[in-house]
What does this fold into?
Amino acid sequence: MSDQFEHFELSKWEEPLQRRKRPNTHSFRRTNKREHGEAILHQTEDLSNKLQRRIEQAPTGINPKLIFKIIINREGNINEDDLRRMGLNVLALDSDKALVVFPNEAALNELQRRIRSYSGIDKEGPKYDFLSSIDEIVELMPVDRIGRRLQLKPFGDDEEGYLDIELWHTGDRDECLSKKNEIQQLLSSSGFSVTDWYVGENLFLLRAKMNKQIYDVLLNLDYVKEIDRRPTPSFEMADLIKLDISQIEGPNINDDELEQLVGVLIIDSGVMTGHPLIGAAVGDAQVFPDRLRERVQGGAEDGDEKTDGHGTAVAGITIYSDIGESISNRTFVPGARLFSARVTDENNEYDTEELLEHQLEEAVEYFLENYPSIKVVNVSLGDERLVYSDGSHQFRFAAAIDEIAYKYRDQEIVFVISSGNFWPQNLSDEEILQKYPSYLLEDNNSRIIDPATAAIPLTVGGIAYGNGNVSGEDNNTDRPIAGVRGWPFPFTRTGWGTDGAIKPDVVDFAGDGKFIRGRIPDDTPQNAGVPTTSKNFAPPEGRLFRTVMGTSFAAPKVANLAARLYRDFPNASSNMIRTLIANSSRIPSDRPDCLSDKDVCDEEILRLYGYGQPDFERARWSEENRVLLLADDSIELDTFQLFTFPSLPQEFLTERGKGHISISMAYDPPTRHTRADNYLGVSMEFALFRNTSHEQIRDIIRAWSKEEKEALEENKIPTKGSLASSEIIKLSPGIKRRKKGTLQKGIAAVSNSRWVYDENPLVLAVICQRNWAPVDVTHQRYALIASVWHENDNVKLYTHIRQHARIYQRVRARV
It folds into this structure.
């Protein structure tokens, strides 16, 4: 192993620099403003009349609200500030450029007055040309309020059951609660009730039992955003290895060492804490909600029975990371302290009366308040019915996780989520084997599911764990589907995420499938699955270990990695831990034929692998030929900062082998799931320059034209302006793709025959922009890593930086 060194701090050039703000312009024009104005005026009057009729016909206690949709022309543009000045509260922005707004009577009158002025019906007053961008003003229909699960399985005429109701969140908590009370009154009149409710910053949910009659009434309420069936968990399992506790050493840790471990909370089906390799590392295990105990026999570990040990399997990987390696070494050393929140009942179902979002919030709140050592929350849950498609709004559960992550950001909590598992229903088992892995990229149903689309957590996809045959024998035709360590897990899910963000963020071991005599069975073979702990461990029939497959078991491996990094960097932010993980990630070099010749930043590679498989040693240490420079900082919105990236030694360009430069960044902005244009309230990006000065880059960014900025985002060199090909370092993927997510990484491969370099320090620019963030959000936290490495061990990068750049201080971590 190479010498291991502490990382350096990345040097900031000076304080945040203000960007030049450009005024919003309304360039779209109508050929006949009078005709257009009369049309949309008629539409608003019609909506007002319909509201009045709904008020007159509403059930007792229900006070309808006028919520309507403004369809914006594809070539038009409306500034939300223009709408707010009229008193129109923007609730959502859809992908088809439609604004959903909530007006009071005064705001509706003001809108109609401005339309008359715009169209010339009223001769006096401002022109209000922005109104020309409106194509239509239409009401929301009942069909707009039917969720994805109810679309797949409609509510029956004679059915009674629990449904989830999402109401439009107006920003006023008291008003939200009044609407909850109205619906409670409506339900009570028919013998039903609201069993749970959740009001977040932007999310307003109810769980209620109802019949078809009540369901139809709710579908016609303007302030109901969506009604859907409640989520159901999906777990995948199978069987493993015969090894007795007397044949291994562990858990190998004393009480003092155990207390130093960082805690990982797993939200799952419960954990068998009596397992000899798990019990010693468990800090606490609870059931959520507590009232679930009234309907469930047993306690915090018993829910694992009906999931075939899903939680116990997740727990083993959370504590020990690679259990296959521990089995080989016959030594088990915990790398994390385990905390368990059980959220499923004895039938492997979520609570019928409690919202899953509320269960999650209660669990996180309880454990974080009582156990400060917890820094990582692992969620290996997913709803395979909710598959993300481009342009869609964020899923509800994913949005709740983002809100909770943002709420607890000052406690530096890293959330880790599995990407979900996919079975190609339109292919036979033989076709799956023959078409692997192309179907993962061709079938839209293979996209990631709720809650893997959450923006702030790390989303983890899957790669194969083992090599070779699936039975350990050579005398049959059994074979694995992937068969090569590091190839895509045959049932992983692919990106993109919300707004086109790179998801999954990273990948790790999820196992493989097996093809046996014409079929792919549900259970997992010993030599193809991921080894982990078994719930059925008691002698004489029990086994300590088993194999499993699924991305549910890739996520806890990354959670373990995050916990170990927190142990060595106890003062790091959650953004820094995420950035260290992304920076350490590599795309496996051995890939299937259809992917082998693609660049590591090709869009198909990014959709499958994200930024690759992370590695603790690469995240924890710098080496002589691989150096990390770190910054854990915050930035004022609508400003930019410049950093000094150290100069590169001559041998970086002259020695045989490739050199690489990468920039990684993570930040945790506010989010809003009703926005299909910008789910993130703040956007950030970075760019790297050579052969220029900080002063020049400062002036360039301040004066960037729209054309220059768009060219840079497309990874192109502008044909005019103040940027030149010798100054921009092309990082892949480009800014346009990177900036869609809260975890970003750009890489440049450096060739000595193509690089023009003046041997001066490089300049790294970090840019922050407000999208819609509340006015009280003035700064954005972020972490940044500039990394440089070379394939040749003779390139002494670390020595060069230490000797020639005194401004770079080493980051002190716990040894």
Summary: Confidence is low (pLDDT under 50) at residues 236-241. The radius of gyration is 28 Å. The domain at 8-21+622-804 is CATH 2.60.120.380 (Jelly Rolls).
